[in-house]
Amino acid sequence: MTTRHGNGTTPAARLSAEDVARYHEEGYIAVDDVLTDEEVAELQRVTDNFVEQSRQVTEHTDVFDLEPGHTPEQPRLRRLKSPDKQHVAYDRVLRNDRILDLVSQLIGPGIRYKTTKLNLKSPEYGSPVEWHQDWAFYPHTNDDLLAVGVAIDDMMLENGCLMVVPGSHKGPVLDHHRDGYFAGAVAPDGLSGRAVPIELRAGGISLHHARLLHGSAPNTSSRPRRLLLFEYAAADAWPLTGGLDWDDFNAHLLRGDAVLQPRLTEVPVRIPLPTHDREGSIYEVQSIVADRGFGST
């Protein structure tokens, strides 16, 4: 479902009560026209420049994650890592008040960002992302966490838009392991029949709960699909895994104050351990999965 807020020049301001209820019931919502045409054009231009820069590398780096088949002649960049640290245009969108105002209606006024990434699907290719729950990667003390996807291009079914299973955020955390190792994907049995696409115009955003099952298919069209992803958490949601540096943790606060008392709620948790030896982006983590719902990478 998509909530329309304007004609491409009038930014979204607030979610309606019905929008908020739909998010809590179905686990996701989509909003068109959050960014202006000028902001979208800047993101497209900056992203094109990074694709050009990726011609200079032949294997993954701390900035570029490459598609199989990437060459200098035919660059296929599948992920720009930590885009907010690579260019101010991405950082501005991360901190965009129109986006944060919508996020605050869903997880509260105190907001911290967790991770940022830019996933790219090349025309007539584009690696799929297998079915998973973000929550499986980073369990917290409460589940007021969500991901915002900013559509840099029109995001449609044929170019590999986000697919979600409505209401799955209310269920258990499914097993994301294979052969005893965390693989970042669930068995796909029966999920395709329950899934719905989130289609957006460029400049729109999707917001989905951290426990919502989602994935995306390869791009079968002649058009790119570039999706800027920000993972936001309530300020009083603390991670249950990984080391924590106090200064760095609070440097990620976008709204609100540092919190010394995590808010504890009864949420299902599976720990994403042990890891296998192909660590890195989700594409690498999922590389050991044989039972695929969206095809091979």
Structure description:
With about 300 residues, the chain is of the alpha+beta class. The protein has a single domain (about 1-5, about 25-290), classed as q2cbj1_9rhob like domain (Jelly Rolls, Sandwich). The chain has eight helices and 15 strands. The protein has helices at about 15-25, 35-55, 85, 90-95, 95-105, 135, 245-250, 280-285, and strands at about 1-5, 30, 65, 75-80, 110-120, 130, 145-150, 160-165, 175-180, 180, 195-200, 205-210, 215, 225-235, 255. The strands form three sheets. Strands 1, 2, 3, 4, 5, 7, 12, 14 and 15 form a nine-stranded mixed β-sheet that branches. Strands 6-13-8-11 form a four-stranded antiparallel β-sheet, with no helix packed on it. The protein has a two-stranded antiparallel sheet with strand order 9-10. About 45% of the residues are buried.
